[in-house]
Design brief:
Elements (H helix, E strand, L loop, with lengths): L4 H13 L4 H10 L12 H4 L35 E3 L18 E3 L13 E5 L5 E3 L1 H6 L3 E8 L16 H5 L2 E10 H8 L7 E6 L6 E5 H6 L2 E6 L2 E2 L9 E3 L12 E7 L14 E2 L5 E2 L8 E6 L10 E10 L5 E7 L7 E2 L1 E2 L9 E9 L4 E9 L8 H8 L12 E4 L5 E4 L3
Helix pairs in contact: 1-2
The protein binds ligand MTE and molybdenum atom.
The site of molybdenum atom has 6 residues, from loops.
C-alpha cells in the first residue's frame, strides 16, 4: 500500500458516510488523528509488547485524561487550608464520582490520622460512655449506601447573577459515592441514649475541630459512621479513617475525621451554625439550621468547559439530586424555560442520591438556552433563580438551588448566563 493510501481510504469512507445520519458522528473523528495509526494500518500500540501487570500497583487514569482533575478558584479563598476544590462534573458520566475527583472542602487542612491511634468517643446523655477504635467500628453490622454530598455553598457565588464559567465551578461542590459504614443508631444504641437527649454534637479531629449539632431524630434515622467510599477506605481528604454521613443534608454536617459524638438536650450553637451556614434573608434576618438540600440539577454537557464540537445528533446530559428523597423527573429546556421536555433518567434512582439524565436533540447550529429542572418524590419542583430570589433576596451564600442556564452559541461555545 502506498503511503497516501490511508488518507485516501479515510476520505472515501467520509464521502460514503456523508449525507447519512452517521456522517456527523463518524466523519470528523475518522479524519482526525495520526494517520499511520488509523485503520487499515497496524497501529504503533499493536507492534510492541505492553507493560506487564503490577507495573501500576495502584491504577491511575490514562495520561490522556490528565485534564480530568479537581480545580480550585484562586481568588475565592485566602488560604488553601480553609478552601475548596471542585469536582470536574463536565468530564464525568453516570452517578458515581471517582474517589480521586470528589471535591474537597476543609476548614483547617487535611488531618493525617494514624488508624491505630484513631478513636471515636460517644458521651454526654448516654447510659455508658464508649470509646471505639477503627477495628471496633468494623466489627459492627455494616451497610452500603449511595448518597450525594452537596456543600451548602455550592452555587453560592451565583446569587447575584451568572459568575463562573463552568459547571465544575458553579455546581462542582457535589459528589456521589457508595459509603460503607455502621448505622449511627447502632452505635448510639450500644451507648444507650438517655430519654432527655434531643441533639447530637459531631466533632472532627482536624485543626478546625469542625463541630455541628444534629437533631437526634436524624441521627437515629439514616446517618452512618462511614469508613469506606466506593469500596476502598476513605481518602484522607474525605475524612480518613471515619466520617459522618448525613444523607440529604448540607455537606457541612458530614463531619470528617469524626472523633466525638456528644448527646445533649439542645443544640450547641457552634461557629458553623451561627456565624456561618445560616441564610441571610432580604429583611436582614438569618435563618438557622437549614439542613436539607432541596432538589437541584445541572446540565454537565454541554457546558462552558465542554463545548459542542459537532452539529447533528447531540446528547445533552446532566445530574439531578434531592435531599428530600428520590428524583422522580427531570425536564430539559432548549429555549430558556419556554418549552420543556422530559429527560430520560438512566441508571439507578436512589434515595438522596444523584441521578443521571439525558435529552437528545438535533443541533442545527442555532443558539440554545439550556436549562434543566429537577422534581422529587415530594412533588417539589426546582425553582428558577428569580423565584428563589423573591423569597431569599440576594444576601445569601448557601442553598442556591435555582435553575442554571447555559447559552450555546452558533460556534458551539457555551456560556453561563441568566434569563429573566
Ligand atoms: N472535620 C471536618 N469535617 C468537615 C469539614 C471540615 O472542614 N472539617 N468540612 C465540611 C464541609 S463544609 C463540607 S461541604 C464537607 C465536604 O466533604 P468532602 O471534602 O468529602 O467533599 O465536609 C464537611 N465536614
Ligand atoms: Mo460545606
Amino acid at each position: 500500500m502506498d503511503k497516501d493510501a490511508p488518507k485516501r481510504a479515510a476520505r472515501r469512507r467520509f464521502l460514503r458516510a456523508a449525507g447519512s445520519a452517521a456522517a456527523a458522528l463518524a466523519g470528523g473523528p475518522a479524519l482526525a488523528g495520526n494517520l499511520k495509526n488509523l485503520p487499515p494500518n497496524v497501529p504503533e500500540w499493536t507492534r510492541a509488547l505492553g507493560d506487564g501487570v503490577a507495573v501500576r500497583p495502584y491504577g491511575k487514569p490514562s495520561k490522556h485524561e490528565a485534564h480530568v482533575v479537581r480545580r480550585d478558584v484562586q481568588w475565592l479563598t485566602a488560604s488553601r487550608e480553609s478552601s475548596v476544590s471542585f469536582t470536574p462534573l463536565h468530564e464525568l458520566d453516570g452517578i458515581i464520582t471517582p474517589n480521586g475527583l470528589c471535591f474537597e472542602r476543609h476548614h483547617g487542612g487535611i488531618a493525617e490520622i494514624d488508624p491505630e491511634d484513631y478513636r471515636l468517643i460517644v458521651h454526654g446523655l448516654v447510659e455508658r460512655e464508649l470509646i471505639f477504635t477503627l477495628a471496633d467500628l468494623k466489627r459492627f453490622p455494616r451497610v452500603n449506601r449511595i448518597h450525594f454530598l452537596e456543600c451548602a455553598a455550592n452555587s453560592g457565588m451565583e446569587w447575584r447573577g451568572a459568575q463562573l464559567n463552568g459547571c465544575q465551578y458553579t455546581h462542582g461542590m457535589v459528589h456521589c459515592v457508595e459509603y460503607t459504614g455502621v448505622p449511627l443508631r447502632v452505635l448510639l444504641a450500644e451507648a444507650g441514649v438517655k430519654p432527655n437527649a434531643k441533639w447530637l454534637l459531631a466533632e472532627g479531629a482536624d485543626s478546625a475541630a469542625m463541630s455541628r449539632s444534629i437533631p437526634l431524630a436524624k441521627a437515629m434515622d439514616d446517618c452512618l459512621v462511614a469508613y469506606r467510599m466506593n469500596g476502598e477506605m476513605l481518602r484522607p481528604e474525605q475524612g480518613y479513617p471515619a466520617r459522618l454521613v448525613v444523607p440529604g443534608w448540607e455537606g457541612n454536617v458530614w463531619v470528617k475525621w469524626l472523633r466525638r459524638l456528644k448527646l445533649g438536650d439542645e443544640p450547641w450553637f457552634a461557629r458553623e451554625e451561627t456565624s456561618k451556614y445560616t441564610d441571610l434573608m432580604a429583611d436582614g434576618k438569618a435563618r438557622q439550621f437549614t439542613f436539607v438540600m432541596d432538589a437541584k440539577s445541572v446540565i454537565t454537557s454541554p457546558s462552558p468547559q465542554a463545548p459542542l464540537r459537532q452539529k447533528g445528533f447531540t446528547v445533552i446530559s446532566g445530574l439531578a439530586w434531592s435531599g428530600r428523597g428520590k428524583i422522580t423527573r427531570v425536564d430539559v429546556s432548549l429555549d430558556g424555560g419556554k418549552n420543556w421536555r422530559e429527560a430520560k433518567i438512566d441508571g439507578l434512582v436512589l434515595d438522596k442520591a444523584c441521578v443521571r439524565f439525558y435529552a437528545e436533540t438535533e443541533w442545527t447550529g442555532g443558539e440554545m438556552l439550556l436549562q434543566s429542572r429537577a422534581i422529587d418524590e415530594t412533588g417539589y419542583v426546582q425553582p428558577t433563580k428569580s423565584e428563589l430570589r423573591k423569597i431569599r433576596g440576594v444576601n445569601s451564600i448557601y442553598h442556591n438551588n435555582g435553575i442554571q442556564t447555559w447559552l450555546v452559541k452558533p460556534n458551539g461555545e457555551v456560556e453561563n448566563v441568566e434569563v429573566s
